[in-house]
Amino acid sequence: MSTEKRNALGKGLSALLNDSPNVNTNNKKTYANPSNPVSELDSLGSVNEIKISEIEVNPFQPRTEFDEQALADLSASIKLQGLIQPITVRKVSAHAYQLISGERRLRASKMAGLTQIPAYVRTANDQQMLEMALIENIQRENLNAIEVALSFQRMIDECSLKQEELGDRVSKNRSTVTNYLRLLKLPPTIQASIRDGGITMGHAKALLAVDDPTVQLYIFQQIIKNELSVRKVEEMVREIQKAPQKKEGKQPEALPYQLQKVQDDLASKFSTRVKLKVNAQGNGSIEIPFLSEDDLGRILEMLDW
């Protein structure tokens, strides 16, 4: 593989995609002839034409949704000009391959009616397969911050990586990795808004300066309602941090799982921290705090008051 191609893949992915000892180093493409298939010795590390029917999708693919219009556009381009960038596969048997990266290209090629597709053949174990799929996913320009954060978390959990190691894999410093991972600590409502483009990464970083999810949700509501800039949100956070903090008393006992789920569902519905209190006799109360008259009006409106 040329230096230019390696740089295009990115530091982390290219490191994982090192050619096997049997790499074709003359940079010349070799193609599989259906009547005289290339041997594994010849095919590893080179570009080969492989039957699409012999390629299995990557079981570790982190992305499950693909833009149908974008696929149709890519398919039209492939029909006109052919597939310019080969996919990457690993060989699992004599006539079977497993996709490592390039599922969009593979899908679009099927739509274009291709029966064969150019592919790099690599050797990779299951963990390397997962890492490569995640890294390719992370390097996509159209990923939102939550998708990146979830991919980072998967690499830490499923590939047993530390944050420093993860940073090396994806060519990002540790503070950047940490900032993305912290997004997953925000309430689900806020995470969904980041994912859908309702608020920016800058808004989210400002919200993370507040520890209380109730306050985070209140500020979030103000961002949406008043279209606040990142700078305005940072000012709100500073004002809140200056206010005297209420001391917490004795922490209540943890709720049973089913009641905890009810409490979480209510908190998500009202976009504020809901407290469910239940005594040994089964009696209790539901507390829905509010941070302003506007916030109270919002909650009362949801209750059809």
From TrEMBL:
Swiss-Prot/TrEMBL keywords: Chromosome partition, DNA-binding
InterPro entries according to UniProt: Chromosome_partition/occlusion (IPR050336), HTH_ParB/Spo0J (IPR041468), ParB/RepB/Spo0J (IPR004437), ParB/Sulfiredoxin_sf (IPR036086), ParB_dimer_C (IPR057240), ParB_N (IPR003115)
Top-level taxon in the UniProt lineage: Bacteria
A single GO BP: chromosome segregation
Start and end residues of each stretch annotated as Disordered: 1-40
SUPFAM superfamilies the UniProt entry points to: KorB DNA-binding domain-like, ParB/Sulfiredoxin
Molecular function, one GO term: DNA binding
Keyword DNA-binding in record: yes
Gene3D superfamilies, sorted: 1.10.10.2830, 3.90.1530.30
GO cellular component, one term: chromosome
Ranges of compositional bias, category Polar residues: 17-38
ParB-like N-terminal domain segment(s): 48-138
Pfam families: HTH_ParB, ParB_C, ParB_N
NCBIfam families: parB_part
Family per record: Belongs to the ParB family.
Protein name: ParB family chromosome partitioning protein
Organism name: Mucilaginibacter phyllosphaerae
